[in-house]
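Question thread 4412

I'm putting together a teaching handout and wanted feedback from people who do this every day. The idea is simple: show students a protein as raw sequence, then show them the structure tokens that encode its fold, then repeat with a second protein so they can compare. Below is the first pair exactly as I plan to print it.
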Amino acid sequence: MQGDVPEHLRALAAGGAAPRVVRRREELAELDGLVIPGGESTTIGMLLERFSLLEPLRQRVRDGLPVFGTCAGVILLAEEIQGSPQPRLGGLDVTVVRNAYGRQVDSFEREIVVPTLGAEPVRGVFIRAPGITRIGPGVEVLAATDAGPVLVRQGVLLGATFHPELTGDARIHGLFVDLVRGT
């Protein structure tokens, strides 16, 4: 509906998937996994409601659909958003705060070590990025910075507070593809 859709499609293909865009409710039944890209989380939530996708997608998450949320996507997956009642899917037992690092002009990039991906760090692109302020007991932190967790997993849900799709490094998308395949 919004966000870095073409970039995610390229990264997923590089990670070994056959991705496609989902815009209609009936397309949800055909999915093995879903990526919710960055963008504006309030707008994405409102569009999900407007197009009658919010409740069916919530149900698919409850039923075990693997979902990868990046930036706004992790906000939509969060069980709680500090100070915001905006529409969301939930399912990921974290609390997030929107724009944790500041406004658009405060965007930055940094190296992030993700031990499950090996010694070579990934490049994290933080654009009006959320911060994860609480981690539930079933959530595994895959990567963190001095500001807190930036990549988390709970079962088949994966959340990144940054934009891995903007770097040309498909390893995190490959991790998600493996999660979808159950490997």
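The second pair follows. I'd like the answer to focus on this one:
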Amino acid sequence: MEPTLDVGQRVLVNRFVYHFKDPKAGDVVVFHPPVGADNGTECGVMPKPGEPCSQPTKGESSQNFIKRIVAGPGDTLSVKGGHPVVNGVEKSDEPYTNPCGNAAACNMPRTITIPPDHYFMMGDNRGASDDSRFWGPVPRDWIIGEAFATYWPPDRIGFL
């Protein structure tokens, strides 16, 4: 999640907020990824060349990940220059991201549709982030909560 968060930085997570409202694009969330995500890239169905992973593996990992939601249920999504293109609109105004570079995951022009009750996650360090592009959207039930502030180290205390 660099540059938003540094490795080892600690966050506060609101575990109750999504009992009262739906997650939305832009939220930084802590969640359990699909099984296989913690080992790198394991998609539930083999994506076509130039296509993000459209389905996660069936199992839920015990690991905790933190990423930013970029698309929700029913949205169409592709990736251009490391930026999500959601419902045909490129979200290029993302000042919190590092440039993507020339990695294959920076451009995935084939469009997928996010399944019902699933959310597509991307890290802010787009060129070096293992995220939903590789292991698919995350079911809402696997979202633990929204990260809203940092508390460690002391020189990085603040709101996200």
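Top answer:
Good format. For the second protein you could add a caption like this: The chain has one helix and eleven strands. The chain has one domain: 10-159.
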